Give the backbone structure.
Amino acid sequence: MTKWKSALIQPTAPIAEAIRMIDVSASQICLVVDAEGSLLGTVTDGDIRRGILRSIPLSGAVSTIMNAAPVVGRLGQPRETFQTLMRGRRIRQLPILDQGGRVCNLVTLDELLDADKLDNWVVLMAGGLGTRLRPLTETTPKPMLKVGSKPLLEIILDHLIKQGFHRFYVSVNYRGDVIKDHLSDGSSLGIEVRYLDETKRLGTAGPLSLIAEPPTEPLVVMNADLLTKLDLRQMLAFHHEHEAVATLAVRDYEFQVPYGVVIVNNDAVEVAALDEKPVHHFLVNAGIYVLEPEVVSQVPKDTFHDMPDVFKALMAAGRRTAAFPVREYWLDIGRMDDFAQANREFLREFAEN
């Protein structure tokens, strides 16, 4: 059983403390309790990310984002009841309460199933030309450029293997032979690697049409030029929780207008307001996706097709899509200065991995 006491948190504690606890905990949940140990609510990674989408500051109290009506188990119930309850409600953690409503344990679905591997396939899109990184990419595909002491693609794989993923597709085009020679079938890393060979440019979604065996579990798709510490298990859980057919990861992006902005009235003469160097905030696509099998089957074959096209079609059809905010380290290595930044930050961010 999980060391449940390490998951306890007070309702007035800052959200930042809940993030720290979840990031270091195997249970991936905080149990919000009062002074007597009675359960007030729970905070999961999904609750935190929804709070971020609502612009709640990390200094705010966990009580502002907690689920005040969580699913719970009762002391004395059999393990089979816990497992059935979690599977039926599509949750992975279950607080156990005594007769007085106090927390006395915490069980997780992974513990009950003794699960350490995920059957979801991960597609790493590695077929880009890397033109903005020339001359480095004249003979080497961008995912094989070394960050620190390892190729970027290997760093990505190491991170995902530690999360339990072991089945990978790698989409290749430009200098795909270099990637194949390095990874082969993946057996040296204890994983299975298959290749999606692009004979022409197919975009960020088109290579999915090359998958021969239709997936039976949600498919994870990730650009192979990303350096991130995101735990994709959390993204999968978020995807299931929101019953989405497609989920995309998003990052907060801001820029400041370097001038004072002048707002005028309709006659374009009278000054209505002045805004000195305003800062604008946007959510931008982070290049990581979770797709239900039915979505993968709808990608047109042998056609250039980008991932935004997939989402636009789903939204036009009224299908449910979700945005998953990335709060962890994330860097898109698209330009020379990004590559230099990745090498500067690699030891600090990934040395412990």
Notes: The chain has a mean pLDDT of 87.
